[in-house]
Amino acid sequence: MSTAQGRETPAALARPAEVEVAIVGAGLAGTSLAAVLGKSGHKVALIDPHLVHHDEFRAEKIGMKQMRVFEKLGLGPAIRPLVTPMTDIHVFRLGQLFQRQRKWEFAFSYGALVNGMRQALPPQVPLTVGKVVEVSTGPDRQRLVLTNGAVIEARLLVVATGYSEALRRAVGIERVEESKAHSLSIGFDLAITPQECAYPAVTCYARNPADRIAYLSVFPIGNRLRGNMFVYRTVAEEWTRAFRENPQAMLCELMPEIARQCGNFAVAGPVEVRQVSLTTTREHRRAGVVTIGDAFWTTCPTPGIGINRVVTDVERLASSYIPAWLKTPGMDADKICGFYDDPVKVATDKAGMRSSIYAKRITIETGLEWRLRRLRNNTARKLMILGRKIRHRDALPTPSVA
User: Fold this and answer.
1) C-alpha–C-alpha distance, residues 237 and 250, integer Å
2) Against a cut of 0.85, is the pTM above it?
3) Is it the case that residue 257 has pLDDT exceeding 70?
4) Which terminus of the chain is more exposed, N or C, with fewer CB under 10 A?
5) Predicted pLDDT of residue 400
6) Does the pLDDT value for residue 255 go beyond 70?
7) In three state form, how does the secondary structure of the chain look?
8) Does the record bear Oxidoreductase in its keywords (predicted)?
9) What is the per-residue pLDDT across 39-57, written as a single tens digit (0 to 9) for each?
10) Angstrom distance (rounded) from CA 205 to CA 216
């Protein structure tokens, strides 16, 4: 296959392949799980329509909590070379510098991260390139037929197909839309390098709820300076079209307090937009099949908790469930439900959904309760900004009298 030309290599299996676990979807969730299970000695088939993951605007940062989980799973050596670490983030609120956060964050391009992890897969877990066209499931065996007629049989099927619906529907799993077009994620490269920016990284919150903007995050990915903005709008709005046409003018108007330090928001390349809906799942408690990551629930990226759900699913399955399931016969629904009812998973999923809903309400809701909450929060922030300025003034040396 020539990756430069983007051609796909079909799976070439001479006879039905028998594995313990078949994972469909080689994004971050599926690839991570396959790597961990493979290193533990399990026979795994990782299936995806593409040998090389295409460029895709998805999550572009994780925190130290998620990195520690990757390290715990033994994936740290594969991930560390693919991320750009940062520890100093200037946070602007109400048009002023609010605080400097000293915390670890790690930035990456999603496609590059996934491709790097695929290349680091253990030899015993090759990527099978193909699309599932037939699937049958049950309490003992799961049978997958690919486009070229190849057959894979497994004791367990893991659905890690993200937003794709074809396999979920074939299995009988339904997606439930909780909040349609909940938010919009916008990504772009700035025309200056990280070295030319006044800040190592910056987060700037919108001042006016009527703008329907949560915040802008500016951070380095390698030698690129990347901008991610999260707004509560839709792709079809005139505002979105206007932003795509002239992001620099709109950003300079919306966030003048950091424009100059960020190269006056000159943008290099196209603006990428991704609409996000909040969804849950039903009819997923069935024998032989487990659904993870965005194939199970989708939450809003604004609170920054989406990858936390992914790594939680991978860690719980790889550490506490799949190895134990494979030690005993069968793969009935009771086994599978143990994962769905896992207290850590349940708490993580619910926290992600709760944070997604709250972040939108506290940003744009016009009801009295939410206006009072914003007033309370902003009053406290103004006092903190004032206190910082007073401390800074008092720390200045007193001029000596000649």
Assistant:
1) 15
2) yes
3) yes
4) C
5) 58
6) yes
7) CCHHHCCCCCCCCCCCEEEEEEEECCCHHHHHHHHHHHHCCCCEEEEECCCCCCCCCCCCEEEHHHHHHHHHCCCHHHHHHHCEEEEEEEEEECCEEEEEEEEEEEECCHHHHHHHHHHCCCCCCCEEECCEEEEECCCCCEEEEECCCCEEEEEEEEECCCCCCHHHHHHCCEEEEEEEEEEEEEEEEECCCHHHCCCCCEEEECCCHHHCEEEEEEEEECCEEEEEEEECCCCCCHHHHHHHHCHHHHHHHHCHHHHHHHHHHCEEEEEEEEEEEEEEEECCCCCCEEECHHHCCECCCCCCCHHHHHHHHHHHHHHHHHHHHHCCCCCCHHHHHHHHCCHHHHHHHHHHHHHHHHHHHHHHCCCHHHHHHHHHHHHHHHHHHHHHHHHHHHHCCCCCCC
8) yes
9) 999 999 999 999 999 988 9
10) 6
What is the C-alpha separation between 286 and 138, in angstroms, rounded? Answer: 8
What domains can you pick out in the chain, each with its CATH number? 3-83+108-178+278-359 (3.50.50.60), 182-276+368-392 (3.30.9)
What pLDDT score does 399 carry?
62
Residue 127 is predicted with a pLDDT of: 95
Residues 6+ apart with CB under 8 A from 64: 103, 104, 105
What's the rounded Cα separation, in Å, for the pair 224 and 357? 32
pLDDT band at 209 (very low <50, low <70, confident <90, very high): very high
Say which residues have a Cβ less than 8 Å from residue 136's Cβ, sequence separation at least 6: 142, 143
- What are the φ/ψ torsions at residue 373 (nearest 5 degrees)? -65, -45
Give the length of the chain.
402
In the predicted structure, residue 398 carries a pLDDT above the cut 70: no
Distance CA 23, CA 36 (A): 12
pLDDT at 148 over 50: yes
Which residue's entry shows tokens 């994936």? 75
